[in-house]
Fold this sequence. Notes:
624 residues; 31% helix; TIM Barrel; 3 domains; alpha/beta; 21 strands; 8-stranded parallel beta sheet; Immunoglobulin-like; 5-stranded antiparallel beta sheet
Amino acid sequence: MSATQCRKIRGAAGWLLARKRFMASLLALSTAQPALADAPLAQVRARPAAGETIYFLLPDRFENGDAKNDTGGLNGDRYRTGFDPSAKGFYHGGDIKGLVARVDYLQGLGATAIWVAPVFQNKPVQGAPGQESAGYHGYWVTDFTRIDPHFGTNAEFRALVDAAHARGMKVYMDIIANHTADVIRYKEGQYSYRDKANWPYSRKGGLNGPTINPGFAGDEDSSAANFARLVDPGAAYTPVVPLAERNAKTPVWLNNPIYYHNRGDSTFRGENSRFGDFAGLDDLFTEHPRVRAGMIEIYADWIKQFGIDGYRIDTAKHVDSGFWQAFIPAMLDTARQAGIPNFTIFGEVAHEGPDPGTIARYTRRDGYPAVLDFAFQGAVRAVLGQGKGTEVLADMFDGDVLYEGGEAAALAMPTFLGNHDMGRFPMLVRKDRPGISDAELLARTELAHVMLLTLRGSPVIYYGDEQGFVGDGHDQDAREDMFASQTPSYNDNVLLGTKATTATANFDPAHPLYRLIATLAQLRKDHPALARGRQVTRTYSEAPGLFSVSRFDPVSGIEYLIAFNTSDKSLRAQSVIGASATSLESLFGLCPVQVSAPGSVRVDLPAFGSMVCRVTPSPETTAR
């Protein structure tokens, strides 16, 4: 593109034209790329956590491979079976067989790991009358040892793991140690949180109540000797288990109220964030040595029996540090003994905004190898949704030193744009920019995915994003069906980049976002610098516009310059580059041919444009 042409690309018409040209070149690239080659299991397991391209999905909403398990083997209406495909809060029929049938679709997208939302048996339905919903999402576990019958069987899950491994993909399970399904009731008939100061473990029903648990030193001492003195679980409330649910949970020890905090509902602030019931879900007494040993046994068994490759851990910040300090090493040791040397563990520490300090503490204090990178999500939203300057990205990456292991450890942080709780990225941008056109929304979403797949971290693609799903909000409003949906509130949305809706199945490899992701995933595979290479921030500013970084091949040290334009106007600007750089090769987008001077290169980018360039150093530098 000539300088004159660059100057002419202004405003909406300009970037629409640039986008059309870009998508035409992208189609040629993506159709020329083969699917990921099959790999021996030993090679799959030898890959480090850093650099995987992760696809996250809810099995119930992905593909229905067996209609016979839609009701989970239960009889009755939706309040007994949990199945109602017309209601966004109930089971829709997706299952493990359906996922296995679509593994090739994920391979074609370039996924190297599949993160599956919890598949353990759940309480089918819970909630007060008129507020019922189902456990389709998997987070209301009653049996931690088996697959929910709505999804299939343990044998079918093993078939999924084998199918993924045969295609060179890992499988990450989503697990919960903070809570179980809501089974325990309180005799007092109320559920507001009761704190430890006014309802200590030493008194029943408050400070003026009779003495209980004599000699119990509280939850700060997790020794078996101390917890042997905890005999009454009713310090704050008197727990009651309905007769019909006395044996609802597996393993059987989970049915004893002594292994729960029983202090009422959390407001997710202060003390109750750790000791309260998460939306009424029974909060496990994770300080108790029996609970720690039991959870270690449960999840070690899944590693040994199924050969999975990693755990994403739900609600990590609502569990005490001592639990994680025991649990995580036990999982890593179990995996090593099972021949899985690079078992992946990352925790969910829900947090809004681009500051990494809050999430980084869980890698230092609690021992997490990695955490979901909410700071990355907040920074990308800030620059592409909220109109913030690109210095937000620079500041966020500057915080990588806060993680245990520093910048090297940050290479394995799972980065993402949106998810099943906060909602999808295009929905968030629409919220930030009311009235935005579909064309501009698509352009911003495309640029967000280029950032996701070329900047440091292990990118997570939320299912449906590659098909232009937008959603209406968070939680249930962001959990659409990939197979033909019967849910009216999903089907009234036109998907981004096409004229399709969720009323028909959406597994289209020709979708522009699918092609974009597939192309970038292949680029990551071909150029390890983009997956595992050290990253150095180059150029940024207080306003929307240029953000550039260099990444370096982990073996050869070759530099790659990556540049983005976060503004809605074309730009011409100078970017810092390595002082030894002389020329550049275009790998994605249109790169300059030569540097302007040692350490500086002119960047021409259309609105929301990007480029990935391989740098050629001077002969003198190469000789050294």
